[in-house]
Design a protein that fits this description.
Elements (H helix, E strand, L loop, with lengths): L6 E6 L2 E6 L10 H16 L5 E6 L4 E3 L12 H20 L5 E5 L2 E3 L1 H8 L2 E5 L3 E3 L13 H9 L1 H10 L3 E2 H7 L4 E3 L4 H13 L3 H13 L7 H12 L3 H11 L10
Parallel strand pairs: 2-3, 3-5, 4-6, 5-7, 6-8, 7-10
Antiparallel strand pairs: 1-2, 8-9
Length: 261
């Protein structure tokens, strides 16, 4: 297991927990943290035992309160474009297309790059004290890590534009009403709730789950026909050992023991 300076990486059987660990900076994302996050995700991807990832922030104030502005405050146009492109490719798109489910445990402020990180995850569960927003226009820029696209996909154009152009954060209850998060729980129960969901997920076929993520993502990829992708991926499931085990378990009235093959 690699050694990290800005994140904590722990394993509990089939569940990996990655914690952004910069509490003195409210877990703000800098380039080093993004690089470590990518490295940890690659480590998870190679580990056949891990089936679900929980992504959260250290402390009880912030999930991730944004990007570390000091790193790009003096950038010119080309540098800004390169910053956004690298963020998309190295972390945000990688996370969205990750073949193991990622649950974002939003334990406080999720602003700017922090909300963009949470939106790239597959499932979001927030504590009742969480605040979510994209305040970039108040700094003279726009969301650059996928925020304009994923927020619109999740909550619709009108609500997304209102949040983006007003630069105002919303409460956890508003986020739930908008469909931005799946559940809202007390901060004390946040990780327990995420672990409980992760355990339910982990009991299912890893192969099928990976293909389900790919199929759902195809719905939002205009270069693909989502229905055609579903048909293709459905067929591929029939060639897996997990399919044979799932069918045998069902016919034998027993619990399936999936190996992810």
């Amino acid at each position: 297991m690699a050694t990290y300076q800005n994140i904590l990486y722990t394993l509990d059987v089939s569940i990996a927990t990655i914690t952004i660990n910069r509490p003195d900076k409210l877990n703000a994302l800098n380039r080093a943290t993004l690089a470590e996050l990518r490295s940890a995700l690659e480590e998870v991807e190679k580990n056949r035992v891990v089936r679900v990832v929980i992504l959260t922030g250290s402390g009880n104030k912030a999930f991730v309160a944004g990007a570390d502005i000091s790193e790009f405050s003096s950038f010119e146009k080309n540098q800004g474009s390169e910053l956004a492109q690298k963020g998309h490719e190295s972390v945000m798109d990688y996370l969205q297309n990750f073949n193991k489910p990622v649950i974002a445990a939003i334990n406080g402020y999720a602003l700017g790059g922090g909300l963009e990180l949470a939106m790239a995850a597959h499932i979001r569960i927030a504590s009742d004290n969480a605040k979510m927003g994209l305040p970039e226009v108040s700094l003279g820029v726009i969301p650059g890590y996928g925020g304009t696209q994923r927020l619109s996909q999740l909550i619709g154009k009108g609500r997304a534009l209102e949040m983006i152009v007003s630069a105002q954060a919303i409460s956890a209850s508003q986020a739930l009403a908008y469909g931005l998060v799946n559940h809202v729980v007390s901060q004390e129960n946040l990780l327990e709730t995420c672990v409980g969901l992760a355990q339910k997920i982990a009991s299912n076929s890893p192969k099928a789950i990976g293909k389900a993520i790919e199929a759902v993502n195809a719905c939002f990829d205009f270069s693909k026909n989502g229905f055609d992708e579903e048909i293709r991926l459905f067929g591929e499931c029939f060639g897996t050992e997990d399919f044979k085990e799932g069918m045998a378990a069902f016919m034998g009235k027993r619990k399936a023991d999936f190996k992810g093959k």
